[in-house]
UniProtKB/TrEMBL annotation:
PROSITE patterns: NDPK_LIKE (PS51374). Gene3D superfamilies: Nucleoside diphosphate kinase-like domain. Residues 4-110 form the Nucleoside diphosphate kinase-like domain. Signal peptide: none annotated. This is Nucleoside diphosphate kinase-like domain-containing protein. It comes from Timema tahoe. The keyword Transferase applies. SMART domains: NDK. Keywords: ATP-binding, Kinase, Nucleotide-binding, Transferase. One of its GO terms (molecular function) is ATP binding. SUPFAM superfamilies: Nucleoside diphosphate kinase, NDK. Pfam families: NDK. Belongs to the NDK family.
Length: 144
């Protein structure tokens, strides 16, 4: 499953800006999913997300949020099984909040200003060992 998800990410023309593997604590999972706190599935979601390690990625491409939503499919699992069985199931604001929580040293503003143009121009290559796209133009590289 792990490699299948990575293959889907790449097949859908996403660039991997950063990636890491984390283990959510109860507190960090509750913070991450705070927008769902009053929903019936909240406790089950927090339990599931703290049950093991999770690979998290910062992904980029033109219309990334819209493309990711299409790829993820309907939010209702039962509906997704029938209407979009091949999907893997956010707003730009949610993405920025999640990046800040999961990648605290990553500066989205700096990346957008200095690295995003190279990603848009395809001047990157995938490092298979780290599953992160690296800039080909090292003159634009910044430390993140």
């Amino acid at each position: 499953m792990f490699q299948n998800i990575r293959d889907i990410i790449l097949a859908n023309r996403f660039y991997v800006v950063q990636t890491t593997s984390i283990k959510f604590s109860q507190e960090s999972a509750r913070t991450f999913y705070q927008e769902h706190k009053n929903k019936f599935f909240y406790h089950r979601l927090v339990s599931f997300m703290t049950s093991g390690s999770v690979d998290v990625h910062i992904l980029a491409r033109e219309d990334a949020v819209t493309a990711w939503r299409v790829l993820m499919g309907p939010t209702k699992v039962y509906q997704a099984q029938f209407s979009d069985p091949n999907t893997i199931r956010d707003s730009p604001e949610s993405a920025a909040r999640e990046i800040a929580l999961l990648f605290p040293t990553f500066d989205l503003h700096v990346w957008s200003q200095y690295q995003e143009p190279s990603f848009r121009d395809g001047k990157v290559e995938l490092c298979l060992n780290t599953f992160v796209h690296k800039l080909l133009d090292t003159a634009r590289t910044i430390k993140n």
